[in-house]
Amino acid sequence: MNKQFLVRHSMRGAVYLLVVLASSCATKKQAANQTLTLKTTTSPSGTVSTATVGPPKKDGIKKFSDLITDKIKADSGLFNTYKVEGKYYYEIPDSLINREMLVVTRYVKTPGGLKTFGQQYGGEQLNNQVWKWERHDKQIFIRVPSYSIRADSTTDMYQSVKNSNLDAVLAAFDIKAFNKDTTGVLIDVTDFYNGDVTAIGLSDDVKKAYKISGVDNTRSYIDTIKSFPINLETHTLKTYRSGESPTDNSNGAVSFELNTSMLLLPKMAMKARISDDRVGFFGQRQTDYGTGAQKAQVTAYIHRWKLEPKDPIAYAKGELVEPKKQIVYYIDPATPKKWIPYLIQGINDWNKAFEAAGFKNAIAGKEAPTPKQDPEFSTEDARYSVIRYFASDVENAYGPHVSDPRSGEILESHVGWYHNVMSLLRDWYLIQTAAVNPAARKARFTDEQMGELIRFVSSHEIGHTLGLPHNFGSSYAYPVDSLRSKSFTDKHGTAPSIMDYARFNYIAQPGDGVTHLYPQIGEYDLWAIKWGYSWFPGNKNPQQEKEILANWTNERAGNPLYYFGRQGTSIDPRLQNEDLGDNAMKASAYGIANLKRILPNLEKWTYQKGENFSDVSELYNEVIGQFYRYMGHVSTNIGGMNENFKTYDQKGAVYDFVSKARQRDAALFLNKQLFETPLWLINKSELSKFDNGLVLNRIKALQVAVLANILNPSRLARMYDNEAKNSNKAYTVSDLFADLRAGVFGNNKPDAYKRNLQRGYVENMKNMLNTDVSISFPGVTSTQLAAFGLTPINIALSDIRPMVRAELKKIDAGLPKGGDALTAAHFADLHLRIKEALNPMRPVINFTPLLMRGINTDEILKENIDGSYRNCWPRTIIE
């Protein structure tokens, strides 16, 4: 994975680096019984696994019939498997030696109370690797190939790459016997699947969380090993010795049911499609030494399902053709029956996008077969893609996928659906649309209402499993006032892509008549599927296809409907989550007008006889959170830059600054809507039902958090860069400080809210003046940091210090004298704070986290190894 994809922003402004570690050790019982070898390997995804492997036995190879008598029936399939007196054997045919196989391990059942991020519920993935079974003398090895570097076998570099890319050994097995016609070997896999092998067991973070010391073999067993034509399914129960059980510490252990699927990969990998930064797809990168380039060439391939037309001739004529193999998702049998039709519809909605790529009936959602209909069906089977339903209070859903590392072919997906995502949908739909939508003005939605919201989320998550990441730039394509048009929204929804975080229409005003209030699969989604899934006749190679696709992309360049804006950067104000329209100030003003209509009615709209006021409290916090989002959308314009990825054959800038006028509009908007105390948020009638003396703190937290965001050193660094490049055409730091001073200190009789804000402003400036920090991270270049909004700057050596010092002096000189006792005390305190800032009397603490304060404060994200987002539905948190 490219380094730049390892940087993620969080609410508190920390930078998360994706670190994947896993390990295991031999148990005491194992150590007592045999001499052991620990073999440690690293998977293509970076997961480290340690397998406990015994030395070759001295008793030699036996006859097949000595171990597997005629009375023992084989479970025939990929490998024939046998169970003999509690031992499990694989019969591996010579034809499958050195064939690549995808191995996916998932939870089947987990203990209650498990709270490890991303690994909690039955159906969730623990690990995936590619294995090759290799024979060497009297042993069989599991090799774990790496695909990070490559060279075509016909090139001069092929042997050199092989020498530098040795496949690691995960485990070794003695050959117990040859089969009857000597076309295969028999091995005992009992100890392997019963052992503590990270590749097919718990990850390191789970082990650390529950102080796990190893597997207790006396309380563990292999339940079943089932063989199918192209896969093997191994179901185990593992009990781990645990010092901190999530359920009951008196057991000294924690138990899990796990399933490991081993799926034979195609002998011939699917033809890869080369990625393009201008069209959003998850993908994979590898360094290719066989391209003929005069450097190590990094090549990126997209992740996509393999779709080929049943009738290539008809397809070539432009007719819609069914694929040879349809993409099918099954709904978990544990899903409440009333939601199944909506989940299926969310899947099937993607068929119109696949029609843009020339395919009909390309995708289908289906109910999982019952045991009577198909006794072999399992939701853990890697051959099947499933929407798994979790009985959980987590407010989330996510759409991962597992792909072939050789080509990017998506092989299966297990969408994670948490029951409590419905709570989040109810809150957002009410807070964002109730001003114009009477149907949302209630504590409990009808099944039909909730079903339609579930359908929307289902489509979004299925989009991820088709290879599509979030497109944060999509919603910018629609003018703000178009979202007040009934005819426009009926046709287009709220954004050209359902993969944006463009939730519900908060812009439409009472009287507009708008009734279609949520996103749908739109113009961009059709384009992305056409780009990623169109089939080209003539056996073209990836480079030839790339040239055709580049021409398609160039034809659409400049059209905002087809714009892809990546997630993870705070540079570009177009690329924001939860926003709508092409002007954040205008859109947010409409949104605030609606919040003012909604807030006074919360108690009335959520009335439930005999219930407490928890709903009022929850929705009041949602109002504050929504208002905070609007402030974040506006703030990003200050010091903002537009990012438009281009190739050499396109004219114009890739990066250009947001106009001076729009940056100033943003600052003045914040002065009016936030720094002039938003008294409308202080609804005494509503607050009296749940607020126990926190309203001052709520408003202070809101104002100071946004202020810290605006004064982020990275933002100021871009503003200085803009001034250096564009002089009087730039909105400068001096301009910003003057505008903020007018908004924060323009009142000679500040109330309690304004006093809090003024102290917060001075303290923020004091920290910038006296805290020696710089923005840098080991192994991450300045260019990579800047790409995510962490524009490097050393405050001590920059123009920030002189400007802050001058600004504090201006504030100090402008403070009035006199007034009532509290006001006079406040201004005297500000004088002392400023004096201390300019002449510090105590040692300054190097508070490094300062440099991250306020960075795109709207979400906490963690990206999976497989390139899918765990948290698609983050709530806003104000602390």
TrEMBL record:
PANTHER family: PEPTIDASE M1A AND M12B, ZINC DEPENDENT METALLOPROTEASE DOMAIN LIPOPROTEIN. Residues 61-110 form the DUF5118 domain. Residues 1-31 form the signal peptide. It comes from Mucilaginibacter pocheonensis. InterPro entries: DUF5117, DUF5118, EcxA_zinc-bd, MetalloPept_cat_dom_sf, Zn_MMP-like_bac. Residues 443-748 form the EcxA zinc-binding domain. This is Zinc-dependent metalloprotease. Keywords: Signal. Residues 123-310 form the DUF5117 domain. It holds the Pfam family DUF5117.
